Predict the 3D structure of the following.
Amino acid sequence: MSTGRVDARPVPSWVDRELYPFEARWLELEREGTLHYVDEDPAGGGAGTVVFCHGTPAWSFDWRGLIAALSPTHRCVALDHLGFGLSERPWGAEYTPEAHARVVELPVGHWPQEEAPEEVERAFKEFLAFRS
């Protein structure tokens, strides 16, 4: 499952940009579709990186308050699972918790070791652990 950065896309008009002012970023997944995420890092990741992953049904909008509060000191990354939020909803994609967990690891796995997240909120990982 390889990935590539996608040029900026417009944020849909239904998104309240006052409540969700973050820059939209996109990651093209080889077979799965385009994943939306935010990566707020005004402080240069000084105190570490926090990765936010929403549960079902939700999207990165749920984390907006924590992103705003933590981004002055931490790099904050929040993604929208495929089929949720601003990510694509490709026909035939796998939308199981296991598939979402694999996709979460893609952007995290491409960071250099010194930039790897120190704290992670992973609702799907917790769900998988609970199911095991």
User: Anything to note?
Assistant: Residues 1 and 56 are 23 Å apart (CA to CA). The two ends are 24 Å apart (CA to CA). Helices lie at 64-70, 97-109, 123-131.
